[in-house]
């Protein structure tokens, strides 16, 4: 017979049996934590620490190498910067020294012209306007430095026989300055350029060999003034003219005075004139002389202009169409005093672009 006490004990035993079994299983299956801790401890002390030290040593070596490399790069950079600065200074000094002869020459020729009345300066050209008044005549000189060969061109109407004033040509083409160019011949109420004329590197009416006192003058593909008498086409072709016109006579060649034919000394003796020439540094000089008529009593003689150009140091010089054709335009105004009272329409004009 089971007593009440036994019943109670049995109840608690049955109730606690699962928990006791669970604890027993945990005790039997418990992982070797202490052993693992011991292994971890052994690895930390005997294995991981030497590896860490080796890595630290390698890192320290890499750091030292990086520092040395950085220092070397810094020194190289400083040396490069000093070298670059020195070379820049040398180049700048050399450029200044190289430009000195040109500057001195320009100052010398400018001093002979006086103080400019007006100046135009751009990336393409520099124009300086001077007054010319030696006593026997009055006029203007325009010294031009072409920085770009395309800053000078010739205007010629696309319609054969059509003429226009220099002001009209300047405005039509958007130029900053202009002068009349070659001579012309009238026929059938139209006005045609005289003899050999070149436009855009091509002959307008074919090549005509120089005859009598005629000459050709124009600009080549490098912006240099070319001119003179040409008796065969190949001689002119070799100079590669991009444009040019014809008139009479030549005044200076290679720094020497040429013989002025007797006819042109008196036909007329004095007159409004337009001449163009170049210095040895390829700067251009244009002189436009005022006159009040074409009967030989006002203006300049060709000999006077020849002597003037020679004293100014011009190397080559050519007499362009004169009389009522002489015109000088700068900054949208007529600078000279045309003898006709108004500008005369002519076929060709030399224009300058800012």
From TrEMBL:
The keyword Transmembrane applies. Signal peptide: none annotated. The chain crosses the membrane at residues 12-29. GO terms for molecular function: hydrolase activity, acting on glycosyl bonds. Residues 173-352 form the Phosphodiester glycosidase domain. InterPro entries: NAGPA. Pfam families: NAGPA (PF09992). Keywords: Glycosidase, Hydrolase, Membrane, Transmembrane, Transmembrane helix. This is Phosphodiester glycosidase family protein.
């Amino acid at each position: 017979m089971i007593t009440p006490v036994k019943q109670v004990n049995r109840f608690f035993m049955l109730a606690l049996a699962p928990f006791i079994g669970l604890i027993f299983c945990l005790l039997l299956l418990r992982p070797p934590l202490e052993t693992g801790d011991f292994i971890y401890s052994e690895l930390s002390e005997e294995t991981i620490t030497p590896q860490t030290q080796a890595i630290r040593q390698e890192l320290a070596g890499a750091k030292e190498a990086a520092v040395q490399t950085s220092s070397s790069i810094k020194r190289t950079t400083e040396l490069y910067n000093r070298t670059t600065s020195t070379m820049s200074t040398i180049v700048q000094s050399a450029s200044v020294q190289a430009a000195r002869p040109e500057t001195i020459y320009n100052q010398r020729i400018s001093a002979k012209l006086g103080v400019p009345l007006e100046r135009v300066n751009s990336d393409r050209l520099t124009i300086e306007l001077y007054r010319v008044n030696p006593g026997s005549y009055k006029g203007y000189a325009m010294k031009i430095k072409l920085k770009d060969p395309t800053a000078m061109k010739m205007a010629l109407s696309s319609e054969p026989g059509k003429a226009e004033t220099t002001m009209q040509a300047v405005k039509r083409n958007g130029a900053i300055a202009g002068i009349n160019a070659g001579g012309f011949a009238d026929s059938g109420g139209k006005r045609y350029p005289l003899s050999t004329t070149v436009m855009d590197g091509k002959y307008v009416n074919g090549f005509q060999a120089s005859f009598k006192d005629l000459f050709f003058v124009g600009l080549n593909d490098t912006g240099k003034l070319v001119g003179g008498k040409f008796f065969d086409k190949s001689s002119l072709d070799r100079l590669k003219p991009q444009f040019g016109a014809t008139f009479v006579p030549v005044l200076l060649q290679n720094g020497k005075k040429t013989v002025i034919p007797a006819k042109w000394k008196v036909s007329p003796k004095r007159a409004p004139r337009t001449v163009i020439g170049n210095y040895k540094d390829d700067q251009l000089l244009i002189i436009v002389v005022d006159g009040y008529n074409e009967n030989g009593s006002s203006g300049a003689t060709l000999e006077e202009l020849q002597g003037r150009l020679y004293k100014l140091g011009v190397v080559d010089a050519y007499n362009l169409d004169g009389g009522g054709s002489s015109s000088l335009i700068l900054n949208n105004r007529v600078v000279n005093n045309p003898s006709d009272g108004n500008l005369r329409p002519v076929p060709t004009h030399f224009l300058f672009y800012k």
